[in-house]
Design goal:
Length: 163
């Protein structure tokens, strides 16, 4: 008997970096996400520059990737954390500057609340650096009320050729 094939689920991943060549780290992460097993990059936002939110350090380069994946949510989280480690991510303290940050924002219609994973991400509607890029790839997920709530957070679209 053949094992059942899992249908792909649409997932959205927020990408950010503010150490090293942050723009290049985010661009490489798009490619790495597309190369995950059972996963295909189906959309990528523009790149944005934002000041650290509830954190310190240099400005961030942010984006959102839309994926179709056959990985489970915990399996995708494992893959995201492996990509962060490959990019040299260190976690010396909460909200420390980072070479790469990958957060699972949405996983289909799933609601997950475990000690290791919360989906949708618990603070995604509070952060301009998630909402604006998410609106690029999944406009139906972002309301005008969401955008109004974060309008005071500094963020700008980056030109395609430089950070």
């Amino acid at each position: 008997m053949q094992p059942a094939v899992r249908e792909p689920v649409m997932a959205c991943v927020a990408l950010g970096a503010n150490l090293g060549d942050a723009r290049q780290a985010v661009l490489q992460a798009f490619e790495a996400l597309n190369n995950l097993p059972g996963t295909r990059l189906t959309g990528r936002s523009r790149l944005y520059r934002s000041a650290p939110h509830e954190a310190q350090g240099p400005d961030f380069v942010n984006a959102v990737a839309r994926l179709d994946t056959t990985l489970s949510a915990p399996g995708l989280l494992d893959a995201l954390q492996a990509l962060e480690a490959q990019a040299g991510r260190q976690r010396p303290y909460v909200n420390a500057p980072r070479t790469l940050d990958l957060d699972l924002i949405l996983f289909g219609q799933s609601r997950i609340d475990s000690p290791r994973l919360q989906v949708p991400h618990p603070r995604w509607r509070e952060r301009a650096f998630v909402l604006l890029p998410l609106a690029d790839v999944c406009p139906d997920q972002v309301s005008t009320e969401d955008l109004a709530r974060v309008a005071d957070q500094p963020i700008k679209v980056l030109p395609e050729d430089k950070a």
